[in-house]
Design goal:
Layout: E1 27-29, H1 40-48, H2 63-73, E2 80-83, H3 85-97, E3 104-107, H4 113-121, E4 125-128, E5 147-151, H5 163-172, E6 178-181, E7 202-207, E8 220-224, H6 226-236, H7 246-257, H8 259-282, E9 286-287, E10 294-298, H9 304-313, E11 316-318, E12 329-333, H10 337-350
Parallel strand pairs: 1-11, 3-4, 3-5, 5-6, 6-7
Antiparallel strand pairs: 2-8, 7-8, 9-10, 10-12
Helix pairs in contact: 1-7, 2-7, 3-4, 3-6, 8-10
Bound molecules: pyridoxal-5'-phosphate.
Length: 351
């Protein structure tokens, strides 16, 4: 701590990302990265802009990328916002849309960055417990609030809500912004983007980190009513005019253009998840129904932290959260078929 800090800094509790260890032959199933690389067209597009033009600032309004996303989803460009990862998009959402007198509602077991942003922006958080089966009950969100946010599918449970349930929340909260964080939507849930023209209070955020395998490029987006997007643009242009560099813009545009690769890899992840789920069940695990690129599983006879440690000794890392209600679960990212096999073999030995 330093006497030079702005006073509020000493109370900040920053987000702790999953580790990125430098260990050879590591089976890394801890941060929900995509086991398949990005589209070869993305790599090519980035190479094509690696030249003298780097001396120039990138496009400040990211118009070409927004147009590509708008056409992909059948919305207008002014309904699209892009940022340096969906984490940055979310930060602007908290700053620009959630600073109200009433508390922000979100699930108690959810993406831990939400509480971090509440701390950063001085927003009161009201966390609502998940149901007994770890699902989100939309009826819980019919109470006074200054906004609502939840991931769909939820993290780290992997469980998804249907669009009818999301509509129920939107209708119960016409005076608040409802943000659906769709970081994992492409692996098995339905996007709520089809609802944005009917609900001016709906904002959907997505990430290129998971389903488009570009965690290292840092690109995220939001789609919603142009008025919501305008708030995000005001924040962004008061913070950093160029959050996406030339390489990120070129790569992200190419990612949305190569639909075949996207469909092929996301289906491979989904198939792999279904196979891994049944293998884990055969080993005696209870696996929550996942619509994401990870599974959340517990074994009735084996302590999760001990299992995670045993896996680590075999160079396999998964995520364990030492938190109430979920401390007996492991969150396991879907890997390549070979990685999943190594995991299942190692678990077989540990059990
Ligand atoms: C990974 C993740 C994000 C952040 O994605 P980036 O685009 O890499 O910043 C946001 N929300 C949830 C629920 C996530 O799991």
């Amino acid at each position: 701590m330093s006497r030079f800090w702005s006073p509020f800094v000493k109370n900040l509790v920053p987000y702790v990302p999953g580790e990125q260890p430098k260990i050879d032959n590591l089976v890394k199933l801890n941060t929900n990265e995509n086991p398949f690389g990005p589209s070869p067209q993305v790599i090519e597009a980035i190479r094509a802009v690696l030249d003298d033009s780097l001396r120039l600032y990138p496009a400040p309004n990211c118009d070409a990328l927004k147009a590509g996303i708008a056409s992909y989803y059948g919305v207008k460009s002014e309904q699209v916002f892009v940022g340096n990862g969906s984490d940055e998009v979310l930060a602007h959402v908290f700053h620009g849309l959630f600073q109200h007198d009433k508390p922000l509602l979100f699930p108690d077991i959810s993406y831990s960055f939400y509480l971090v942003y509440c701390g950063l922006y001085g927003i009161q958080a009201k966390m609502l417990p998940l149901a007994e089966d770890f699902s989100i009950d939309p009826a819980d969100y019919s109470q006074p609030n200054g906004g609502i946010i939840f991931p769909n599918p939820n993290a780290p449970t992997g469980m998804a809500l249907g669009l009818a349930q999301i509509e129920q929340m939107l209708q119960a909260n016409p005076d608040s912004v409802v943000v659906v964080d769709e970081a994992y939507v492409d692996f098995g849930a339905q996007t709520a983007i089809s609802l944005v023209d009917r609900y001016p209070n709906l904002l959907v955020t997505q990430s290129l980190s998971k389903s488009r395998s570009l965690a290292g490029l840092r690109v995220g987006l939001a789609v919603g009513h142009a008025d919501l997007i305008e708030a995000l643009e005001r924040i962004k242009n008061s913070f950093n005019s160029y959050p996406l560099d030339r390489l990120a813009l070129a790569g992200a545009e190419a990612a949305f253009a190569d639909n075949d690769y996207f469909e092929m890899t996301r289906n491979a992840v989904i198939d792999s998840r279904e196979r891994l789920t049944s293998q884990l069940q055969t080993l005696g695990f209870e696996v929550l129904p996942s619509a994401a690129n990870f599974v959340f599983a517990r074994h009735p006879q084996h302590d999760a932290a001990t299992l995670a440690q045993g896996l680590r000794e075999r160079r396999i890392i998964v995520r364990h959260f030492a938190k109430p209600r979920i401390d007996q679960f492991l969150r396991i990212t879907i890997g390549t078929p070979e990685q999943n096999l190594k995991l299942v073999e190692a678990l077989g030995q540990l059990l």
